[in-house]
Amino acid sequence: MADLSVRIAGVEFPNPVIAASGTYGNGECYTELYPLSRLGGVSCKGMTIEPKMGNVPPRIAETPSGILNSVGLQNIGVHGFVEYYLPTLKEEGNVIIANVAGAVLDDYIAAAEVLDASDVDMIELNISCPNVKAGGATWGVTKEGAAAVTHAVRKATKKPLIVKLTPNVTDITEIARAVEAEGADSISLINTLLGMRIDINSRRPILHNNVGGLSGPAVFPVAVRMVWQCYKAVHIPIIGMGGISTWEDAVEMILAGASAVQIGTAIFKDPYSPLKVIDGLSEYMDKNGIRSVSELVGQVKPW
To answer: Pick the catalytic residue: 29, 44, 129, 230?
Structure first.
């Protein structure tokens, strides 16, 4: 029988399927459906050092093959997460990844310091948030910004550090190399692509924030391409995400270079989709005589 376990930055996952940040809450909505321990891990809802109310509605819009969101990181803050959610999550016996965001470096540092003293297993840096000192640009769109926040957080914590990359860049491999050089233990990609929908009757954007992040099947080919490019560019493990809906998608992402995958938008349609991916991946490996996930990682054969 195939061994689905994977090891990333010294952390052992029972299988390579992780619930993506922002789509699974902190697990509270799903424990009645199945034990969270059946997943490889949970990347918790993006959190900031202080609580945030998020953006003004409407902040979700459907698209032909996915959704746009501009939720705006609504969360109870890092201290609230550690006190209220983390103890229950740890009882589930799962790998817990804390997703952290901030507007300035001090926000990231403060959040990392709190989490460093907690029981989370890993920290995932969301560097798609506004860099106020750079006029509102996101940290992740330049190699200098990505390197700066990674360097600062690396000094603030000994926890294994994942850096989540934005696809809204010219060359994602430059960003990947920059965060690797500053101490990232892993990278995860892709975050959402920037998009927009307009109500033709009111002639206003559907989202109050005008634009939002596109996720779902529409972004999957972009995600596969970027994971493949980064696999050739860095030496640290990659966690692939972006439009994964089926076990076939997960296999494709792993072949492109991902050591593990995150499933997000698909969960809104089918909360059991991560379990179906796990089962399908296991059957595929058994059928093809593949003993471990590592045998598939990066094994695409380009023409």
So the answer is: 129
3-class secondary-structure state, position 37: helix
Q: Which helix (H) or strand (E) holds 269?
A: helix 266-269
Task: Please write the tens of the pLDDT for every residue from 44-79.
Answer: 999 999 999 999 999 999 999 999 999 999 999 999
CA angle 27, 30, 31 (to 5 degrees): 85
The Cα–Cα gap between 121 and 142 comes to 28
Whether 142 shows a pLDDT value over 90: the answer reads yes
pLDDT 10s digits, 227-260: 999 999 999 999 999 999 999 999 999 999 999 9
| H helix or E strand, kind and range, residue 12 | strand 11-13
Domains and CATH numbers, the chain: 6-49+78-188+215-295 (3.20.20.70)
Confidence tier at 27 by pLDDT (50, 70, 90): confident
Rounded-to-integer distance, Cα 178 and Cα 172, Å: 10
Tell me, yes or no, if 29 is annotated catalytic.
no
The torsion of the CA quartet 24, 29, 35, 38, rounded to 10 degrees, works out to -20
- Distance of alpha carbon 122 from alpha carbon 10, whole angstroms: 10
